[in-house]
Batch of 2 targets.
Target 1
Amino acid sequence: EPEVTQTPSHQVTQMGQEVILRCVPISNHLYFYWYRQILGQKVEFLVSFYNNEISEKSEIFDDQFSVERPDGSNFTLKIRSTKLEDSAMYFCASSGLAGPTDTQYFGPGTRLTVL
Amino acid sequence: AQSVTQLGSHVSVSEGALVLLRCNYSSSVPPYLFWYVQYPNQGLQLLLKYTSAATLVKGINGFEAEFKKSETSFHLTKPSAHMSDAAEYFCAVSDGDSSASKIIFGSGTRLSIRP
């Protein structure tokens, strides 16, 4: 069964460093998303991406964040200068169609720890 | 704006007992609702989704949920709990105003199963 994969599973970094979180969405999907879950809190939407551009972003997704689909398979989230409060589990998701009824398939997540 | 509220951050039931996890929604448009499950150290897996086709939705692992517009509820049930059901459960609603339809999650309910 196709699945979304994410690497690494756990990333530890120093405050101020840049990190890139990688995702491989399901191969025929067209819509891509990043969400995050701070420990003990709810899952929050960060950004959606379609046709090589951002469709929507939340207020969390400030200038320190960027997304890219550098090739036909990978979808990355870059945090330019990490802060302590960026420590969270980051989930990538993908869906095949637009619209509120389509299922988003989530990856296993990358746990980011900022020291 | 769409939102969901999950009643009870922690629910504990005995093995074989009924599981009932509560979710109420708020939506300005007909809602599209989901239940996701997160097993320890894993990603989010879709249990079931409501897309207005039928008010009683059957999902995986014996779970089902009933959409009740009069009560603005979408509670998740399972007739007989199994030890393997221990996980975090998230109710969610699709943001129908968004072209890429981000998902808005509830705060989650941790389900524990007593032997």
Target 2
Amino acid sequence: DIQMTQSPSSLSASLGGRVTITCKASQDINKYIAWYQHKPGKGPRLLIHYTSTLQPGIPSRFSGSGSGRDYSFSIRSLEPEDIATYFCLQYDILWTFGGGTKLEIK
Amino acid sequence: QVQLQQPGAELVKPGASVKMSCKASGYTFTSYWINWVKQRPGQGLEWIGDIYPGRGITNYNEKFKSKATLTLDTSSSTAYMQLSSLTSEDSAVYYCSRRGAGTMDYWGQGTSVIVSS
């Protein structure tokens, strides 16, 4: 089974700032990674798939990159509505989720 | 717009079973796989299995093969998941999601299952 190690588990950043979250796979996942935003009481929202492809309607201040086993997700120009938990999902072989990153605003 | 509607909560007794629903709308139900995902409080997400409404094909995570059963009612565009022999370890939020863009593109709001006597 593929394991996904996501870090950090939580972080705090200032409005207007930039944050980066990483996911490391236990093997090459061929760029089949997606990133989600999850707010309490709601279903997760797909932001990015295939490493860096933005879903329609998602602002360009969200971005993703990576290859092989190492992937990252960034948000620039943080806004109050970005407070949420973010997680990665590999879908190269079956489905494995990262542990999640809880983002707070300073 | 694509929507997956799930009931908010189910309270069930230990040892019993529960069958939860996921009603799809806004797209052709038979053209997209439906996934089911578990999230225990304070823990990460786990994939349980998926089902293809076009043919009724199912795949299960080995861990959940004896716990979960996925079924469909295509006439109402609804997917179901039944969990059997419930214990406290099954208390969790269960999400359904659609497979689109190769990944899980739309999600329901989740059903909170509470196993308690």
